[in-house]
């Protein structure tokens, strides 16, 4: 039996490993991305992509909040930076700063609510990915792959925090990939980002935690 990490794609093959997956301890973690054992699922055969019907009428479109627009503009700025378009990046950063300044405080920003919202995002990815594959949009498909992996890791970390509390963050550091947003907990960043494969110097250490 082969078990696949739902975050980075690492494969644990019972036939090649000394210990069967089911016999691994409960606190075992993915050697590549640090995901917990429960983030692994048995490998299943790939199925043919079925056509997906998507309603694109304006009435179904959702108006983005100021905070969401800030995140979009910030991501667009990073994209421009990677293409060495400094002027465009600066403009998007200005927009991101503006939308951030008018973003209203979130009153129910509990860890439990964050976990719920992350799971809602994860549930949407199969449909979005199916639409991308159906239209042979490689760029959108790649975004879906990266986005789902990063979201799954965030969900995994949040659920770990709900179970372990502050002990989860004791004597360790938090690193964020500046390319794809992948979050890694450890003394040093991974040798390669499990999602986008960039080297460790692309990771930023999150400072200022109490």
TrEMBL record:
Cofactor(s) this protein cannot do without: Fe(3+)
Pfam families: Rubredoxin (PF00301), RUBY_RBDX (PF21349)
Xref: PROSITE patterns: RUBREDOXIN, RUBREDOXIN_LIKE
Family annotation (InterPro entries): Rubredoxin-like_dom, Rubredoxin_dom, Rubredoxin_Fe_BS, RUBY_RBDX
Domain of life: Bacteria
Domain Rubredoxin-like, chain residue ranges per copy: 2-43, 172-206
Keywords: Electron transport, Iron, Metal-binding, Transport
Protein name from the UniProt record: Rubredoxin
High-level lineage: Bacteria, Bacillati, Bacillota, Clostridia, Lachnospirales
């Amino acid at each position: 039996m082969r078990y696949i990490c739902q975050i980075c794609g690492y494969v644990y093959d019972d036939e090649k490993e000394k210990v069967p997956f089911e016999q691994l301890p409960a606190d075992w973690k993915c050697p590549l991305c640090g995901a917990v054992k429960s983030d692994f699922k048995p490998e299943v055969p790939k199925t043919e992509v079925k056509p997906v019907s998507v309603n694109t009428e304006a009435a179904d479109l959702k108006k983005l909040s100021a905070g969401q627009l800030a995140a979009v503009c910030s991501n667009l700025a990073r994209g421009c930076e990677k293409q060495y378009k400094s002027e465009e990046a600066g403009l998007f950063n200005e927009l991101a700063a503006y939308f951030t300044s008018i973003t209203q405080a979130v009153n129910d920003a509990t860890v439990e609510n964050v976990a719920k919202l992350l799971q809602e995002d994860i549930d949407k990815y199969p449909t979005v990915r199916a639409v991308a594959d159906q239209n042979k949009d490689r760029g959108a498909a790649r975004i879906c792959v990266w986005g789902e992996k990063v979201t799954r890791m965030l969900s995994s970390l949040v659920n770990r925090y709900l179970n372990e509390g502050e002990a989860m963050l004791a004597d360790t550091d938090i690193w964020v990939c500046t390319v794809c947003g992948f979050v890694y907990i450890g003394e040093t960043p991974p040798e390669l980002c499990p999602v986008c494969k960039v080297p460790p110097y692309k990771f930023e250490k999150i400072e200022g935690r109490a």
